[in-house]
Amino acid sequence: MALNSEVLALLDEMKEIRRNIHRNPEVGLDTVETAKMIKSKLDEYGIPYSDCGVNSVVAEVKGGDGDTTVAFRVDFDALEMDEENDFAHKSQVEGRMHACGHDGHCTSLIALAAYLSKHRDFNGTVLLLFQSGEEGYEGALRVIEDGFFDKYKVDYMFGFHNWPGLETGKIAVHNGACMASEDRFEIHVTGKSGHASMPHVSNEPFAAVADIIKGLQSIIVRKVPSHERGVISITQVHGGSMRNGIPDRVMVQGNVRTCNEEVQDLIEESIGQVAKGAAIMYGVEAELDYVRKHPVLVNSVPEIGLKAAEKVVGADNVVTDMESSMAAEDYAFFMKHTKGCYVWIGNGSDSAALHNSKYDFNDKILPVAASFFIAVIDELL
Asked: Which H helix or E strand runs over 56?
């Protein structure tokens, strides 16, 4: 493993930064104090920065007169959940914890900033984007809407996620889709309310809902090609308020994941067909509200990520055959505007799962991530 020696020398300092972020988690776009800490480190390193999006920060480091710009993006928001660990740096905020490793992602980019403050022997511009609100708060969209790609001519963007189950010292690089799209839907079924003892004079929406739920389960196996991946999950059903009353309205809510935009289109169309068919059969009305929350995260230049990973961990420790994840990542929005690659860095085979109350970021991979970023700069600038 060829980790950068100067980054390795920063490990103790970076561990303390990471654990301090872990102790003081902030959720969503309300990340004021963490953003202040990031800015204080950038000030210390003499690196200029500006605000973008909502409590996100972008720093700019120039080297030479090259006109290529490479951006690195990390997230730094936590989750709304209680932590069940008992180590000294556990969350000090009830109902909030860094259960996805964004504390480590953020610290890895701080380590890169520390390195670049002393090494500007590259030819071009490096952007360091610290993004709030990844966990369902559309933080990436807020950055884009704030003019990020108008202000900067971003030629490439790179990012990473720690990955529990993947051994420490390994990096996974996907050729194409890395993480799934996320869509959300609601189906509102409207019938005619009445007494439970006289269903013949009402028009029960639950009968149609039962067929809709059953029909949705058949879409993946009957309509999606077997070599493609897709998930439809029913997450909520709401309707009625009395034991002896038939309601006039029932709502079904669900979540869809795919790794192919054509499959995404097919599933949305099929859900509408299922709802419409059941409505006709039972003489009720069904209205579909379908929202595309995140696009598929597609690596457009995996070869660059692969070369950088091989420099850092060696070819034997680069994994290229892992299945794409059905989890979503709002980094995908950036990939609609520029070329890039998003990799997974092993958090350890014994790591608790992401979004688990026992999870903790593995500090040993801080220098792996920072060294990967440096290797990308070496490749492109």
From this structure: strand 56-63
Burial code (b: 16+ CB inside 10 Å, e: under 16) for 37-57 equals bbbebbeebebebeebbbbbb
pLDDT digits (tens, 9 = 90+) for 126-135: 999 999 999 9
| 220-259: pLDDT as tens digits | 999 998 888 999 999 999 998 989 888 899 999 999 999 9
| Separation of alpha carbons 294 and 95, rounded Å | 26
- Maximum separation of any 2 CA atoms in the chain, in Å: 81
Length of the chain: 381
Question: Which DSSP string do the residues of 151-205 spell out, in sequence order?
Answer: HS--SEEEEEEEEETSPTT-EE--SSEEE-EEEEEEEEEE-B-EETT-GGGSB-H
**Separation CA 79–CA 295 (nearest Å):** 21
Say how many CA atoms lie within 13 Å of 308 toward its Cβ.
30
Return d(Cα 233, Cα 327) in angstroms, integer. 13
